[in-house]
Amino acid sequence: MLRGPSPITVGTPSLLRAINERTILDLIHNQGPVSRAQVARVSGLSKPTVSLALAGLLEARLVREVGRSRGERGPSALLYELNPMAGWVVGVDIGRKWVRAAIADIAGTIVARRDERARVTSAGTLIGQVGATARRLAAEAGVDWSQVTHATLGSPGVFDPVHGYVAMAPNLPGWGRSGLVQAVREELGTNVSFENDVNLAALGEQAHGHGRGVRDFVYLSVGTGIGMGLIVDGRLYTGSTGAAGEIGYLPLGGDGRSAHRRWGALEEAAAAAGMVRTARDLGMRPPLTALKVFNAARRGEPTARKAIAVEAERLALAIATVTPILDPELVVLGGGIGRNGDLLLDGIERELRRWSPFHPRVMTSALGDDGVLQGAVATALQAARERVFSRSPARAMEA
Question: What's the burial of 199, exposed, middle or buried (CB within 10 Å: 0-12/13-18/19+)?
Fold first, then answer.
């Protein structure tokens, strides 16, 4: 049974009209396509009130007619849906190796995307690449850049809104300099938000992957670095300074014991460089990469399999450390290393049983390399919808 918000019946006529329009717009977004009668029934508003509000929303091009109902008794009725062209958003995933970007309409449909090698020689070069890529996407989608309502950028590190920079992003030269955020906003010339890439991957998994419908889960990204996105009670949890989930800094060494006086001990041991170092110490011959180790393990090479068993043990230790604190229902593995669930999951689950009485489900990401980008688009959509849905019809016509 559809349920909608109760109508508010006090206030000035203009305020009431704005409230009713927002109520109906939210309902159409969540339930559409819907008929006028369905809107009245679900919202509790009278049919004349619904008709007046729909007329305003149609005039403002925030909703559109989308055919007629079928299969119901009586005459068919016009159906209404959110006008996908009422706003546009851009999501960008900025990494050490790749810049991935996509543009989507306000309904969430991605209409164009680009994947480019990251130009990380300097912050200025990377900012210029982001701006140029975003504008090319808009052109490919046939959208004037002024129509883009919001852009969300994801990168390694912790966003500091007070000082306007991203801390703890050593793999992106110059990314931690003061004024970075303002420089990006000037380059893009639209509303911009910043978020940690692993947090966005968690939000992407929540919107489109294994996290759908899961109230409490964590996204563990293992690749060049290690990080964790935390979804608590259905919401992203970032902590008092935005650093929640920076588990690469856990003081856990490669031998499973606490490694005091060393920052980034877990990342040093279990990220890509640490895994390669383990494989080399076990006797694999260089040149080595994490991918080569996994490929060798799939061919059945015993030394490579032993290196992966050590990696699984380290990841299980990290999960066992976090689980009693957060009590997640699910752990999603992502990143260049984490996505190799065929080789890691059995070992992680075996070690978890040894380390801890708490055993959340452990799965590999459903989104692969697209997790951060999907999360960036989802985050931009949330901000854009709030902005677009809050416009009065008159202002929407002017925009």
Answer: buried
